[in-house]
Amino acid sequence: MNVTLLAGGVGGARLAHGLDLALGAPSLTVVVNVGDDTQLHGLAISPDIDTVVYTLAGLNDEERGWGLRGESYATLSALRDLGEDTWFTLGDRDLATHIVRTQRLHRGEPLSAVTAHLARAMGVGPRVLPATDDHLATLVDTPSGRLGFQEYFVGRQHADAVLGLHFEGADAARPAPGVLDALAAELVVLAPSNPFLSIEPLLAVRGVREALATAPGRRVAVSPIVGGQAIKGPAAQILETLGHEVSALGVARIYADLVDVMVIDEQDAHLAGPVADLGLTVHVTDTVMGGPPGRERLARELLALA
Ligand code: FO1
Known about the structure:
This protein has 306 residues and is α/β, with parallel strands linked by helices. The protein has 13 helices and 14 strands. Helix 1 (10-23) packs parallel to helix 2 (47-57), helix 1 (10-23) packs across helix 13 and helix 4 crosses helix 5. The chain is globular and about 60 Å long. The mean pLDDT is 97. Ligand FO1 binds next to helix 2 and helix 6.
């Protein structure tokens, strides 16, 4: 069975790992958000792509969710000594990824080709595609003004109220090669990633939302909200400030026109009826993945839904 996962960072990476374990690499494509991408110290950084690639390679820092396991920070410390801003934590080995990416982009390679190279070099089997090779930047409107994504997320620890989001470049951004074809898979899964910060920028790429809305396969979304709280990150606060119900039902309303099945956690079993009233099939299970066995179990349940 061919499966495509639409993913942001940590939640997407964990489910990608589960699907890889359950399915085997050749059948899996992961389309990854690039709205978080940034430039620091002259380097091109693609946090969500790296989180997915490192996790699939078994090299990620499991505790933080992002970055590499067993990192050292000598370069960051030297940059600080030279007067550079070091609010964004870049490990020594992680920096090698950004150097290779930057070098290849400067040579004119598209991000999709660079990502394929890095994934191959790290022994990753599934295909990892950026949503687009073109410029796309998530900008966050807050009471303090419009902020770049990483300034909002890491620099200010996502403490600002989110009043709106702007996906710079989305109108002109074309899907990376393979993205639209991947949406024709037998199973398309929206990862339990942040609907606004991770999935929306992906859908904002020209033609992607339409391709998902008319996709021929089974389309399944996993709620990132469990028991009224986000598993990780600011999804709950953002749902609230943007006027949505902070629950799996609120998430289901956002995805209702795009998916056939909504997967919600056992803690939210009481929402199964209202979610079904939206015209969706509901699957209730333990969605909090934890380690590899939990990821693989959830992945197998998703495969059975197709
Ligand atoms: N997230 C943080 O909260 N603090 C950091 O210092 C940080 C550094 C970092 C470096 C490389 C990388 O690939 C990811 C990194 N992240 C960090 C995660 C990143 O901000 C992601 O965009 C978010 O987790 C949202 O997906």
